[in-house]
User: Which sequence fits this backbone?
């Protein structure tokens, strides 16, 4: 029995370590999909797609890369409005969208969220907080998601520059650099 003790201890240690690794992995996966603290912050550099974001669409409203944009992580928006989806597995109560951009138009940028249904309805927030960060302008808007259902596991956000049209290049365009989406819900710890 005593001779067998090291082998048994080794067996318990390896199985204990294996169980600890599996539980740790499951906790990590759970937290990625259902944030325990209630807040999920997602960053979208418009050229680096992640699993949580779609590309900007419709694609014909986003110009292909040119000399100015090919080395930068930006997209040139040439027509109003453009959309992008944020995929999530669970509904949230509040969202804050923050977009960094350079605006060569004289028109004001607004952010919004699409309300799912038969018709295309959007809730635009024209009174977003505006600031400057170096050479980039920043707009930040918050949205109440408690009345907006999660549709096909995604929320659709809108970047709107009313009056900007592709066939009128003299109006200008918008260089979008980065979007940060903060999704909030009640903490599971409360």
Assistant:
């Amino acid at each position: 029995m005593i001779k067998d003790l090291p082998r048994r201890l080794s067996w318990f240690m390896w199985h204990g370590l294996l169980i600890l690794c599996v539980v740790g992995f499951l906790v990590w996966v759970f937290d990625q999909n259902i944030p325990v603290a209630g807040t999920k912050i997602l960053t979208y550099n418009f050229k680096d797609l992640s699993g949580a974001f779609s590309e900007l669409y419709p694609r014909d409203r986003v110009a292909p890369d040119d000399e100015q944009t090919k080395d930068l992580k930006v997209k040139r928006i040439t027509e109003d409005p453009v959309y992008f989806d944020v995929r999530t597995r669970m509904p949230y109560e509040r969202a804050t969208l923050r977009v960094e951009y350079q605006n060569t138009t004289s028109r004001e940028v607004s952010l919004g969220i699409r309300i799912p249904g038969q018709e295309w309805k959007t809730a635009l927030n024209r009174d977003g907080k505006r600031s400057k960060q170096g050479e980039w302008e920043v707009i930040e808007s918050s949205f109440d998601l408690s009345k907006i259902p999660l549709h096909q596991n995604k929320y659709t956000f809108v970047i709107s520059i009313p009056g900007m049209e592709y066939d009128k290049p003299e109006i200008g365009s918008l260089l979008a650099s980065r979007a940060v989406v903060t999704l909030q819900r009640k903490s599971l710890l409360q």
